Amino acid sequence: MPSDNRKRAIRAYMAEHGVPYAVAARHIDQANGNGEAAHRHPRPALDFLADLPYSAGRGVDTDLATSVVAACRAGCPPCQDALIPRLLTQRPTVAMLACAVFGWLPGAGLASATTRAWQPLAQQAHRDGDGTAAFTAVADMTPEQVSELLEDALDMWAAGAADVHLVHLDDDPDDALDELAGGDLDSPPSTRSAR
Ligand SMILES: [Zn+2]
What we know:
Blueprint: H1 3-17, H2 21-31, H3 62-74, H4 77-88, H5 91-102, H6 113-128, H7 132-140, H8 143-158, H9 161-167, H10 173-183
Helix pairs in contact: 1-2, 3-4, 3-8, 5-6, 5-7, 5-8, 6-7, 9-10
The protein binds zinc ion (ZN).
């Protein structure tokens, strides 16, 4: 991690958690280490994502995806800052995470124009069980567009959208949406909110 980024992350952590510099620095350095060294957030079980067709047969890093979702749900900026740049270099994994939420949602809500333009391909992947077109579009995105798509997807993951979907895999999607709407009325999706 470049030292400017490290300092910025440390300051952000100090502001967020009200801890001294040394404590924040230790947290940041741990978060930037290997998985073993990083401090842990409660990890959702996301290994099943690799079995979905959303990465079009490409290798995906479900461990990294799980770490990022965990950091977003925990509202931990230093972990997000450390892990998201790594995730952005793995477009099949980004496509997997994004399809897993935007594939079944009827709309992309407040998502970026990039995500709204891409969502029909995710819906097609979900409907047809073939993520090739959705992944290819992600592979062709500019770095800025991939970043926008991932940020939108992580907002949804942080809000628990995918979990609701999975609970209702055999049910009417409208029920899942009702539950999502009811459950999140008081806490709008945000990767930055502690949950
Ligand atoms: Zn953390």
